[in-house]
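Hi,

I'm pasting everything inline rather than attaching a file, because the server keeps stripping attachments. The sequence lines come first, and each chain or strand is labelled.
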Amino acid sequence: MKNIVLIGFMGVGKGSVAREIVRNSDYIAIDTDDLIESMENRKIKMIFEKEGEKYFRKLEKHVAKWLEKSVHDTLISTGGGFYMQENLKKIGTIILLDSPFEAIMKRIKEHPNAEKKLKKRPLLKNLKEAKELYNERRSGYLELADIIIDVTNKNPEICAKEILKKVKKYA
Ligand code: S3P
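And the predicted assembly:
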């Protein structure tokens, strides 16, 4: 079994889809943001505030190298900027969770924990800048993806099932 790597913009639902994949398969899941937070023993928000984005990207690079070398048969959910790592394609089958910017923001705002979700993501602070970031990134996401899943208005369980059906070909 090759690793499955979920990529996509902040708030698109990588975490929720990962949890549904785990519920419907034998995969164990890890999350690059969680790995970084435990490595650093502090929250992503704090890392951005105290050290800046460049430092955070270095931590992602460290994680990316470790994933390539040491992690197998695993579902890897990533932070929205992790796709920039040079060795991404060597880590596993890349699955893009794709949705228009407006639909992603709607999804976050309708969540019962909307405020918390926005607060913990430094790059979502300014809506205009977040939209620009989305526009800058989208072609990169599409280019890297082995499989593209349109998640707009679909619940995580349906997305997870779609992914599990499609990855069989890549196993
Ligand atoms: C980031 C996305 C975040 C987190 C960090 C930076 C990004 O993860 O890694 O705040 O650059 O898009 P989520 O995609 O889980 O929000």
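The chain has a mean pLDDT of 96.

If the labels don't parse on your end, tell me and I'll reformat.
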